[in-house]
Amino acid sequence: MPHARDGNLRIHYRDTGADATPIVLIHGHPFNSSAWGPQEDALGKSLRLVLPDLMGFGESEGPEQRAYYSVDTFAGNVLAVMDAAGIDKAIIGGLSLGGYVTFALWRLARTRIAGLVLADTKAEADNDDARATRTAQQQRIEREGISTLADEMLAGPLLSDATRADKPDVVERARRAMDNPAAGWVGALQAMKERPDSTPNLSSIDVPTLIVVGEHDAITPPALARLMHEQIAGSRLAVIPAAGHLSNLEAPSHFSGAVAEFVSEAAGGI
Ligand code: MLT
Question: How remote is the CA of residue 28 from the centroid of ligand 1, in Å?
């Protein structure tokens, strides 16, 4: 399996290797790159999909100390992967936390970005309540590990009611992709707590941009996707029917179709 080095960390990534438009997709919290499995299957031959495991997730190494985790250090992981894969410029996309990291990449390295896919994410920073919830989750993980919290999250707002009721295979796949080291969970919670507000960056985005959101996303709801759509000139918005926060897993054909259409029409010349 290919990997990059970011400082002393080994960062794993999946690479479909096709001789085609490169698109880097960054997973959400607390998942790993296996959460992009349906897109790897649907798009991996027509696009070059590069799917990093952020540090502390999947097969990537991660620091034990939460202070090392930030959206900027995660962005550094992605740049290290692009370097290792020989990719100078790519479409960059991310779901949720992956979107927060995509905004950090826009601030740090926009010349390497040919287009954006912002999926089930938002530009706003955490408010005080959200930070307190994340702190309580960090304490809980340190006391009892990740398992019960992962089960509760899946039973709660991550998925739409329809997915939970009718698609046990999706619930199972999501649960497997949550099986990551406790240090990665705690670190990502720290990074999300401390991430800056990206709202002021939206008007500077001048590359083709696709915004995707599950119709029933309860974590980063369609109203926030519409706000990004209004502020990013020329952006497209795809609302995925019946899906919740994990729209790429819950409605994979619809999600992959929206990405394929975006790449061929809006970002076709990349
Ligand atoms: C994610 O899916 O990455 C997280 O739910 C995002 C968040 O908690 O803000």
Answer: 6
